Amino acid sequence: MTKEPMTDDAMTDPSTADPSTTDSAATPMVTLRGVCKHFGHHQVLYDVDLTVPRGETLCIIGPSGSGKSTMLRCINHLEDISAGQVCVDGNLIGYRLRSDGRLHELHHRRAAEQRLGIGMVFQHFNLFPHMTALENVTLGPIKAKGVAKSEIEPYARQLLERVGLGDKVTAYPSQLSGGQQQRVAIARAMAMRPPLILFDEPTSALDPELVGEVLDVMKDLARTGGITLIVVTHEMGFAREVADRVIFMDAGRIVEEGTPAEVLGDPQHARTRSFLSAVLH
Amino acid sequence: MSITAKIRANQPPARADVVPLRHWGRGVFAVVVAITVVVIVNSLATNPNIEWSIVGDYLFDHNILRGLRKTLEMTVLGTIFATALAVVIAVMRLSPSKIISGTAAAYAFFFRGIPLIVLLILIGNLGLFFKNFTVAIPFTDITFWSRPVRDVMTPFRASVLGLSLAGSGYMSEIVRGGLLAVGRGQHEAAKAIGLTSGRTLRYIVLPQALRVIVPPLGNELIAMLKASAIVSVIAGGDLLTVALGISGRNFRTIEMLIVATIWYLLVIVVLSIGQYFVERKVAER
Ligand SMILES: Nc1ncnc2c1ncn2[C@@H]1O[C@H](COP(=O)(O)OP(=O)(O)OP(=O)(O)O)[C@@H](O)[C@H]1O
Ligand SMILES: [Mg+2]
Q1: What CATH number should be reported for the domain holding residue B115?
Q2: ipTM of the complex
Q3: Span B74-101, average pLDDT
Q4: Do the domain assignments include residue B103?
Q5: What confidence score (pLDDT) does residue B2 get?
Q6: What pLDDT score does A25 carry?
Q7: What is the atom index within ligand 1 of the atom nearest the CA of A66?
Q8: In total, how many domains does chain B have?
Q9: Residue B86 CA: distances (Å) to CA of A118, B92, B119, B168
């Protein structure tokens, strides 16, 4: 069976949605093909192609303004794309291919459904300030997925325990440090049990002494496996330690990709080299 | 004197009494206010043209109390409807669709612009230019429901409608300010966990906007109470209508206005106390 973007009919075919089929296991978690993005007349992404296999931890590095965040936000359709296509788990994101051969934008409710399987962690945490840590973590499962509160709460407590915040369950975000808030945000993303989590510079807004505790949680996630992680980061140490692959972006293009040792240790492109020497020194 | 001795002389003894700064201006102001109040109260109390016993007689008159109840009902219903309408209008104004946001802007412009007294007279006299209220498919003969305007638009309903429409125009601005105060990051975080825009509004945006919306809403409630006196122009049956009605019979206009004033002020005191507690509750967290 082909893994090209599916038409209407194929989408409703239950066999393609079943993750246990060997076919589906071979499907990459994320595929970007020829993705372009414009903000008005300003082009930010140029023909980006990217394939992320299941379970991979991918780190994206690159100078400010190179389009890292934008690319990440195209994956869960927080930004719509100007051209190309994004597939997650074999499903076209934000659009569907109709029999007329064109891509039709999805109704926002369908787009919201697609995001159920894609977690996201933001640079500035974006916790809901009017809810406790536990409420932040359970809101998505309860209100977006329709899981019973009694069912999700024990799991949510377990997750908060796992990120080291078992004693902060009833704390409000304003009562937590930046590092603690970001760990709640990671638990909030995990509570949806997504096969994929996107991280946009999760430690850039933290005081230096708090970076480690957040990275530790992410390393734990990466090592446990099963979840695909795409991490935009400036933490080269983290990338070297846990990334399966690193890509370097510049001016809206993927300039270089490879293992951490290749990209960080022996960069082939002049721009990668100058970026790395600026970051590492 | 040695230098150390000088320093020691300037240093306070271990236990010194503290004398706060005296604010003479405040004292003078207080005396002026006190004298003014005494003069005013005295001139009112001893004024031969005001019969205080009549004020006492009518303060708990059952017609007056009925009018008071109508005023309270109008104020509460008007505030509820106005707030609900205001939320709808504010959400519409933030829509990316120019048609939807434009419609809402026009609505807010119109009902903020038209003087309440004009609006009330128009609504109160709808029967003069429309015969029936009809629910039907336009330009066909299919009619689902039809009633004479006169029956549907009682003075009380006209009053509530007028107050709601006028109030919603102002309040939509307040609600809009509250919605805008919730940052983009909150919308994105809600989207990222798969919430639809409706649920984002309900669980994320509105609860946070409330902190901005509630304090001025208390002022709107008080403004609505005072505005409700204007419905006396369409004989809305409110406190002022009743008070003026009685004065038309006993020719004691000033006394009846004093009766009404006492009640308005009393209700406002109660509302202000409530507002204080609600604001304190909202400010928590
Ligand atoms: N909403 C927007 N409207 C207009 N331009 C935007 C918008 N978002 C991003 N851009 C532009 O797109 C370009 C890429 O931005 P992006 O945030 O993706 O970069 P980045 O690589 O994540 O940078 P940083 O490391 O600073 O986060 C920048 O030039 C930015 O100004
Ligand atoms: Mg960025």
Answers
A1: 1.10.3720.10
A2: 0.87
A3: 94
A4: yes
A5: 57
A6: 67
A7: 21
A8: 1
A9: 35, 10, 18, 5
